[in-house]
Specification:
- With 307 residues, the chain is α/β, with parallel strands linked by helices.
- It has a single domain, classed as UDP-N-acetylmuramoyl-L-alanine:D-glutamate ligase, CATH 3.40.1190.20.
- Strand 9, helix 5 and strand 10 form a beta-alpha-beta unit.
- The longest helix is centred in the C-terminal third of the chain and has 16 residues.
Length: 307
C-alpha cells in the first residue's frame, strides 16, 4: 500500500484569466474550480486515476479543514486525519493565463504541533508493513523543526522493507536526504544548482552514490534527470504538450515514483511514466488529475534519451 503524508494540506482555488495576471488591476476569471490540495493529496489523486489506491494522511484544523475532509471523499481513498489544536487549514489561490503560466498564492495554515504530528506518525506506524511505500511531500506547518521529515523517515525505515519517497525543499530536504530515503524528487532550485542538464545529472548521480536508490530532478519546461542504482543519470526533454496549468506537474512525477515503487517498474519505465504523468497533468485544469488513457498515450510515445 502507498501512504501519502500531507502535514499542511489546502483547499485549492484555481482561477483562469485570459490575459494572465495583471497586478494592480481587476482580473476577471472565465473559469474556476476548487480541489482538495497539498502535494501528498495531489499524489493520491493521480495514483487513483492510475488504478493504484493509497491512504491519504493529513493534518487539518478549523472550518476549512472540515471542508477539505468532505472534499477528500470524492477521491475514494482511505483518509487518516488528525486535528491541530488551533488555526485553520489554508487556502491556496492559483491564477492561470491562457498561455498556461500559473501564479500561486499560498496560505500559511496552522502552526506546528508536536503532539499532532506524533499522533499521525504513530497511526501510520501501526498500519504499515514490509513492501509499503510512504510519500512525504510539501512544506510542513509553520514553526516545524528542520528535522521533521528526517525524523519521520527514520521512524518509518525501522519497519523492514518500507520505502520512503521525499519531495521537500530547504532544510527539510537537506536533513531528509541525510536519512537516505528510497527516492527523492527535488528541483534544481531546491538543490541550489543551475537549471541545466549537466548540473542535474551530476547532482542526481551524487545523490545515488550517497544512498538514495532513485532520484528524479524536475527542471520544469527544460525537462528532467533521472538516476538510480541500476541506471546512470539520464536527461530527457519535457514532452511537447499544450499546458493549461503547470501546478501539480511535480506532484504527478512523485506519484510516478510511488506507482513504480509499488508495482516494481524498471528504472527506465519509471522515468518514462514520470514524464508522461507530468505532461498529462500540464494539460489539465487546476490540480485535477489527468486520465489514465492520456498518461499511457504519452508513456508509449515518450522517448528517454540524453538528447
Amino acid at each position: 500500500m502507498i501512504y501519502t503524508i500531507t502535514l499542511n494540506p489546502a483547499v485549492d482555488v484555481s482561477l483562469h484569466v485570459r490575459e494572465g495576471l495583471l497586478p494592480g488591476s481587476i482580473n476577471q476569471s472565465f473559469a474556476e474550480r476548487t480541489d482538495p490540495g497539498g502535494k501528498g493529496i495531489n499524489v493520491s489523486k493521480t495514483l487513483k486515476v492510475m488504478g493504484q489506491d493509497s491512504v491519504i494522511c493529513v493534518g487539518i484544523c478549523g472550518e476549512d479543514g472540515d471542508r477539505l475532509l468532505s472534499m477528500l471523499k470524492s477521491i475514494g481513498s482511505e483518509v487518516i486525519s488528525v486535528r491541530y489544536p488551533a488555526g485553520n487549514t489554508r487556502t491556496n489561490i492559483k491564477i492561470t493565463g491562457e498561455n498556461g503560466v500559473t501564479t500561486d498564492i499560498n496560505g500559511n495554515g496552522p502552526q506546528y504541533d508536536k503532539d499532532t504530528v506524533e499522533e499521525l506518525k504513530n497511526i501510520i506506524l501501526s498500519k504499515i508493513t514490509s513492501g509499503d511505500t510512504i510519500v512525504i511531500s510539501g512544506r510542513p506547518p509553520l514553526g516545524s523543526p528542520s528535522d521533521i521529515y528526517a525524523e519521520l523517515i527514520r521512524s518509518f525505515k525501522e519497519v523492514e522493507g518500507v520505502k520512503v519517497i521525499l519531495d521537500a525543499s530547504d532544510e527539510y530536504l537537506r536533513e531528509g536526504l541525510a536519512e537516505k530515503p528510497y527516492a527523492v524528487k527535488p528541483t534544481c532550485e531546491e538543490l541550489c544548482i543551475d537549471n541545466d542538464a549537466d548540473s542535474a545529472k551530476y547532482e542526481a548521480g551524487d545523490l545515488v552514490l550517497r544512498g538514495v536508490t532513485r532520484c528524479l530532478i524536475s527542471m520544469g519546461v527544460v525537462g528532467a534527470v533521472f538516476a538510480s542504482r541500476d541506471m546512470e543519470a539520464t536527461y530527457t526533454r519535457a514532452l511537447d504538450v499544450k499546458a493549461n496549468c503547470t501546478t501539480g506537474c511535480g506532484d504527478a512525477m512523485t506519484a510516478g515514483l510511488a506507482y513504480a515503487s509499488e508495482t516494481g517498474m524498471s528504472s527506465e519505465d519509471s522515468f518514462r511514466l514520470c514524464m508522461a504523468l507530468a505532461g498529462a497533468e500540464a494539460e489539465t485544469e487546476g490540480t485535477n488529475p489527468p486520465t489514465k488513457e492520456r498518461v499511457m498515450e504519452l508513456f508509449n510515445s515518450a522517448p528517454i534519451s540524453g538528447q
